[in-house]
């Protein structure tokens, strides 16, 4: 019998908090159970196991990150939208490192849960919408999305690992990187003949 008040959402929230504190790869079902003050077995009435929990954390994080990006970019276009988008992405990664990693790590996600979750779908819509403001169409849209994701994730991952040892503040490099991305997006090279979507 499931403990009163324990739900899949509460288990997921506890796992997400723990991931932010100790790292996603360090989260165990036993630790989540201790945090909730229940026996390990109680969790399995709500999540199928660690992989299911990680998938749920990824969906929760995708929803949270997308909401923050949507709020930051509302009513903006061009460089203002790009900077707001990127800053919201980076701020979420700083504030919620474990949850953020769940969105960047291949995890098993229940197809039914994924189909109901608005975060991943909305993230794609926001990203493509922002890039259409630069006049991009396929296959350039997909290439630009991959470039942005690689740049944003690479930067925050290196920052989290204290990979920027140079005396220049990472914030200054972040600003310049966004300036450079804006110029690139405004002057995106045309797809070569033979390229396909």
Which properties best describe this structure?
10 helices, globular
Question: Would you kindly provide a brief summary of this structure?
Answer:
Helices cover 69% and strands 0% of the residues. It is mainly α. The model has no long low-confidence stretch (mean pLDDT 92).
Tell me about this structure.
The protein is mainly α. Helices cover 69% and strands 0% of the residues. α5 runs parallel beside α9 and α5 runs antiparallel to α10 (170-186). It is globular.
Percent of sequence in beta strands = under 5%
* Count of runs of 4 or more consecutive helical residues: 10
Structural class: mainly alpha
Q: What is the β-strand count?
A: 0
Largest sheet, strands/sense/barrel: none
Residue-averaged pLDDT: 92
Query: Which parts are unreliable, with pLDDT below 50 for 5 consecutive residues or more?
Result: none
Helix content: 55-70%
Computed Rg: 19 Å
What is the CA–CA distance across the termini? 51 Å
Helix and strand layout, with pairings?
Blueprint: H1 8-22, H2 29-36, H3 40-43, H4 50-73, H5 78-95, H6 97-104, H7 111-116, H8 118-132, H9 140-160, H10 170-186
């Amino acid at each position: 019998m499931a403990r009163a008040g324990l739900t899949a959402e509460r288990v997921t929230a506890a796992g997400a908090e723990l991931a932010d504190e100790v790292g996603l790869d360090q989260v165990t079902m036993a630790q989540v159970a201790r945090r909730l003050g229940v026996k390990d077995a109680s969790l399995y009435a709500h999540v199928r196991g660690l992989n299911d929990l990680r998938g749920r954390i990824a969906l929760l994080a995708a929803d949270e990150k997308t909401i923050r990006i949507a709020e930051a970019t509302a009513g903006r276009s061009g460089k203002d939208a790009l900077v707001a988008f990127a800053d919201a992405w980076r701020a979420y990664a700083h504030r919620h490192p474990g949850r953020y990693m769940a969105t960047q790590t291949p995890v098993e996600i229940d197809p039914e849960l994924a189909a109901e979750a608005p975060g991943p779908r909305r993230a794609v819509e926001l990203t493509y919408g922002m890039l259409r403001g630069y006049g991009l169409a396929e296959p350039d849209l997909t290439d630009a999305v991959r470039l942005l994701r690689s740049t944003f994730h690479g930067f925050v991952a290196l920052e989290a690992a204290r990979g920027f040892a140079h005396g220049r503040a990472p914030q200054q490099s972040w600003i310049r990187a966004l300036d450079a991305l804006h110029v690139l997006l405004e002057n995106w090279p045309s797809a070569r003949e033979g390229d396909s979507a």
